[in-house]
Specification:
By secondary structure, the chain is α+β, with helices and mostly antiparallel strands. The protein contains 7 helices and 21 strands. The strands form 5 sheets. Strands 3, 6, 7, 8, 9 and 12 form a 6-stranded mixed β-sheet that branches. Strands 5-4-14-13-10-11 form a 6-stranded antiparallel β-sheet.
């Protein structure tokens, strides 16, 4: 070992205690579930990674244990390194392709847990911003700021798997803005887009932390409500309706206002897969539209 290494770690991968207080390490998810892909996490203290909600980094991967591994910054010869520790995971922790139980990370190291791969790096602002943009382009709808259709459908299937495995309920809501075409015809396409943008933000602001919203179509949004029965979903949407009823979007001096209809369906009660569940919610949405609009309707258990 030469004087450029400490315990096998390259000198450029070490941080002094002072530098550690001023800088942070970061992890980027470079492969895995669409909900996680591209996310960047900064840390300077000990963190846990796993599937359970109590972890510092939550991984939506069926092959990841509830509490899978630990990353622990610690002093080594007056410098700081980050140690990777397996927390008795079921499927193991792999570092650059090799199974490990405890190991020091180098900048650029790839950590594989289940079907997810995370890359470890020292703080790099340019890289961090780049990865954040990649995540945004891959998962978000550019107009609404909500998740895009591909992402929301992948997350729907993930929620179905979680609910089957744990025997948990969850509900979905399919929303359609009433008479958006009227806004478009009267005020123009840009005005209609502005209304969708503000409407989507209002929807997102009325959701809980665990809820997920995405743009399903032109003026349709799909909302996933984990751990929520159809009755709970109806209560949440009723509160949201009151908020939207008071929403007025100012556009170039014009006051834009619209309402929405929604169809609600519950997993397993109405369907046992994501696409069928959307179909049932869509039928409920159609009934809401037929009722005179500005309505929320729960799906029937059976549709002819």
């Amino acid at each position: 070992m030469d004087d450029k290494t400490v315990a096998g770690i390259k000198e450029e991968d070490l941080l002094s205690e002072k530098e550690n207080r001023e800088n942070k390490f970061f992890l980027t998810i470079i492969s895995g579930n669409g909900r996680d892909f591209g996310k960047v996490y900064k840390f300077s203290n000990e963190i846990t990674i796993g599937r359970d909600s109590g972890n510092d980094i939550i991984i939506h991967d069926e092959q990841v244990s509830k509490k899978h591994c630990l990353l622990k910054p610690e002093s080594l010869g007056g410098n700081y390194v980050v140690k990777l520790i397996d927390l008795n995971s079921t499927n193991g922790v792999f570092l650059n392709g090799e199974r490990v139980f405890s190991s020091i990370l180098n900048s650029g190291s790839k950590i594989e847990i289940g079907d997810t791969i995370l890359r470890f790096n020292l703080n790099d602002e340019i890289e961090e911003k780049f990865q954040a943009k990649i995540f945004s382009y891959a998962t978000l709808d550019h107009l609404t700021g909500l998740y895009n259709k591909r992402f929301i459908l992948e997350e729907l299937e993930s929620q179905c798997k979680i609910s089957r495995r744990n025997n948990r309920v969850f509900s979905i809501v399919l929303i359609d803005i009433d008479d958006l075409k009227g806004l478009n015809d009267k005020f123009g396409h840009i005005a209609a887009d502005e209304y969708i943008k503000v409407f989507s933000k209002e929807v997102k602001d009325n959701l809980r932390g665990q809820d997920i919203a995405g743009r399903y179509g032109g003026d349709e949004l799909l909302i996933l409500l984990p751990e929520t029965s159809i009755d709970g979903a109806l209560k949440l949407m009723s509160r949201m309706k009151k908020s939207i009823d008071n929403l007025i979007v100012d556009f170039r001096g014009y006051q834009l206002k619209a309402t929405f209809c929604a169809g609600i369906a519950q997993f397993i009660l109405h369907a046992r897969d994501g696409i069928s569940l959307i179909d049932i919610a869509d039928k409920a949405l159609y009934e809401a539209k037929k009722s005179g609009k500005n309505a929320i309707i729960n799906a029937k258990v059976n549709y002819d």
